[in-house]
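subagent[fold] <- orchestrator: predict structure for attached chain, return C-alpha cells only, no commentary.
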Amino acid sequence: MQAIKGKLSADRRWPDCQQLAIKIFFHAATIYSLRDATKTPLKSLDGGVNFFDFASAAVIARSAFDTYLTMFDVFFAPNNEDEFEFNYIVWQLSGFIIRESKTSNPEMREGVNNSKQYIEELRTRIQATSKFNSLKPGEKNGILYKGDRKRDWKRIAKAAGFSDRAIIILRNYYSGYVHADGLSGLQIETAKSAKEQIELLEAHMLTMMVIMSKTIIIYAEKFEESMDVCKNAPGSLGLAQAYAKAINNLS
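subagent[fold] -> orchestrator:
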C-alpha cells in the first residue's frame, strides 16, 4: 500500500482502492493491539480489570473479510471496463445515496449538496454501462435510488480463492459475533481465563493474517511497485501465499 501511496493515476477510480486496503490494515492493527489486553477502569477495584477482547476481534475480522471481498469485487474481479465502471459506481452509490436525505444542520448542508451533485454524476455514468442496461427495471431503480444491489457474496468469495468451508467459517461463524447468536454468547460466557480468551483471540488474528496476506498478493499482482517491495523482502510473498492457502485447509 505504501509503495503506491501518492502515485498519480490516469484512472481516478484506482486511488479509491487504497481506501479499502487501508481499512483492512487498520483492522489488522487493531486486532494486534487487542492481544495486549483491554483494561477497563473500575473505581471499585484497584488497577481496574484486564481481559482479552476476543469478541471484538471476531467482529473486526468479519469486517475485514467483507472489506476484502468488496475490494476484490470492485477493483480486481471485473473482466472488462464496462464491468469495472458498473461495480465501482454501485459501490460509490451505496454509500453516498444516504446523503440525499434532508438535513437541518447548516454545517452539513453544503456537504450534502455537494454529494447530491456527485450522486447525479454517478447515475448518469452508470446508465451508460451495458451491464446496467441489461438489468430489470426494478433492479435499475434499486441501484439508482436506494444504492441497492443483490450480490452473491458466496460467488465473490469463491472467485477470490476461498473454499466453501472457509466461506462458512468467515461469513456464518463471524456473523454470529456481529449479530450476537447463541454460540458467540456461549463462548463469551465460558472463556473466563486469560488462556481461553487468548486462544480465541489468536484464532481471529490468524484470520486477519489470511486477509492481509491475500491483500498483499493481489496488490503485488496488480501493481509493479508492490511487487518490488515484496522482492526486496525475501520470503514475504511466499509467506503471504502460505497464509492465504491456510484458510482453505481448515477441517
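orchestrator: received. Logging for downstream: The mean pLDDT is 87. The two ends are 32 Å apart (CA to CA).
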